[in-house]
Amino acid sequence: MRRLDLAVLRRRPGASRDPLMVAAGIVLGLLCLLALVAALVPFAGSPTEISGPRLSPPSWEYPLGTDSLGRSLLPRLLEGIGVTLVVSATAVLITAVLSTAIGIVAGYAGGWLRETVMRVVDVLYAFPAIILAILVAAVLGAGRVATVSAIVLVTVPLMVRMIAAQAATVAHRDFVTSARISGVRLPVILYRHILSGVGGTLAVQGTYALSVGILVEGGLSFLGQGVQLPQSSLGLLVQEGAVYMVAAPWLLFAPAAVLVASILSITVIGDTLRDRLEPREVRSLA
């Protein structure tokens, strides 16, 4: 056998578990769990309490060292993980709802409606993500609302395009045609048939949007337009750590490592979901 379908390989009993997917899930789950536990039970201390000397290196008492004000970095990092994930996930949830509604209607209707939606989406997609995010923050003002709005505006275009394309494909399948001929109401067709047909695309694009959302939040906070003090976020901690990169490199390395780990984990999960839910490629393994 010279050519094997990767989707078939992934469904074999011995290939049902992807070690990379499992590792990514463990890393992401651990980060979420630590942030949640730290928010409910401040076991690492208060993120705003000045409890030690300034710029103290990592030690038994301060596992990640202290910042320029003498605050322990560990509780600030745990708070930053939670804030970044909550802000990004909230924005992606809004994106998913808007994109699904717009994409399903445009893909099913087709014609001038779909073309109009696609042209608007293309205009938004043409802007660089960070430039568009900065523009939104400049209009709305720095803070969480601006960050969520920027993430939504950056992630909606691609998700709408993908969902509309998949919805247009599903709309021409036999079971949808049969439902239309049988007199099934349009809302029922959209909800019961089209929505279920784009579920895989929505899951894959949702993970991609989440990784983009974390990047946008980090970029805005790094530029001072995202989450504001006294709260912490991963981007804000990276920005603060960059100032003391030579004198206290631990202030930069810890949040930067967590930021990279979270984005990589989500990307790996998204790639695995794409291979399992949208197995379109047939590659030669010979």
From TrEMBL:
Belongs to the binding-protein-dependent transport system permease family. Its main location: membrane. It is a multi-pass membrane protein. It is found in: Cell membrane. This is Peptide ABC transporter permease. InterPro entries: BP-dependent_transpt_permease, MetI-like, MetI-like_sf. One of its GO terms (biological process) is transmembrane transport. CDD domains: TM_PBP2 (cd06261). It comes from the Bacteria. GO terms for cellular component: plasma membrane. Keywords: Cell membrane, Membrane, Transmembrane, Transmembrane helix, Transport. Pfam families: BPD_transp_1. The chain crosses the membrane at residues 20-44, 81-111, 123-142, 148-168, 189-216, 242-270.
